[in-house]
């Protein structure tokens, strides 16, 4: 190996996250190990564990980056749209698109189980909340008279529902073998929740 | 060990599934191995692999049993209710209850990845469809004039949405740290989808 101190700690962290992301994209998460990540970037496992507390910490950093990438894509694709309902529909569309383009990385965000001793880092929680907050902002534009709690509640119900369709479809667990597209199912949920939200 | 041929093939299969279920409930899926299951029932790994094609086949059988148990609970709790809307709400309630009582077994149904060479057995697909069919039956009672395709579409959107709330809540990934109960979020989704379904 012998490349020790060619890179700063931050550079090693970024290289490791990129290498882990590539492995998960190409070969799935189950075969990812610290040794493989270290090998890919030309460092030892020992060096890796100077940068990450443990393997789960590496996965948490990878997941944080996945969410950042997805949120950036969605923000980029929606910020120019003027109508909040159109924005919500576009958010769902690009959520599905990101999940479809990066199924293994996307699933890892939701399926990774950190060991009990390792609390969810604050920055992970903040990142996860970004999606819900974007939906809530648009709902409050649709119906400004509703209070924050009603808006947050509706945003949570709607976005969790969209997530449910997305994960079941992507893992091949949806009824009817694709007779209905994910997009149409999501449209039904958005129509229903927005109409109820406007009316009630 | 020396207990070979004390039990029939079917008995060994059932014992192995029960032992695997117990392990997953107590210690989670990640530490489950064929060796542990074999040890628990007093047989060798070799015997286990006469009964199951491989480890994934054992997991698939475990998952099939989990779905059977859940469907039986839901059917038992809903069949005496006369109102189809009440039945749908009760289905969701007991879906959440089963998932909450058996989080690791329930997650395994959705998170297990069979190797690419191993197709989903027909009986798994049939089992998964049971939940959607129960919802569809109730929707068609609510609005008998709607055609099968509309009913199946709505059932899929609604049940996938409920699943989304359930999985995000159970894995601690819901916004707002539990300020809203899963039940209220699910109610919002059911209200929205049923009102839209009746109206449109």
| Overall geometry of chain A | elongated
Binned strand content of chain A: under 5%
CATH fold naming of the largest domain in chain A: Tetracycline Repressor, domain 2
Under CATH, the homologous superfamily of the largest domain in chain A reads Tetracycline Repressor, domain 2
The overall number of domains of chain A is 2
Terminal residue distance of chain A: 65 Å
Sheet with the most strands, sense and barrel status of chain A:
none
Please state the structural category of chain A: mainly alpha
- Count of DSSP-assigned helices of chain A: 9
Low-confidence runs of at least 5 consecutive residues of chain A: none
Task: Tell me the helix content of chain A.
Answer: over 70%
Based on the structure given, which CATH architecture of the largest domain in chain A is correct?
Answer: Orthogonal Bundle
Cα-atom radius of gyration of chain A: 19 Å
Write structural notes for this entry.
The structure is a homodimer of 200-residue chains. The first copy, chain A, has 200 residues and is an all-alpha fold. Chain A has 2 domains: 52 residues, Arc Repressor Mutant, subunit A; 143 residues, Orthogonal Bundle (Tetracycline Repressor, domain 2), CATH 1.10.357.10. Helix content of chain A is 74%, strand content 0%. Chain A has 9 helices and no strands. In chain A, helix 4 crosses helix 6 and helix 5 packs antiparallel against helix 7. Chain A is elongated, with a radius of gyration of 19 Å. The model of chain A has no long low-confidence stretch (mean pLDDT 89). Chains A and B meet through helix 7, helix 8 and helix 9 of A and helix 7, helix 8 and helix 9 of B.
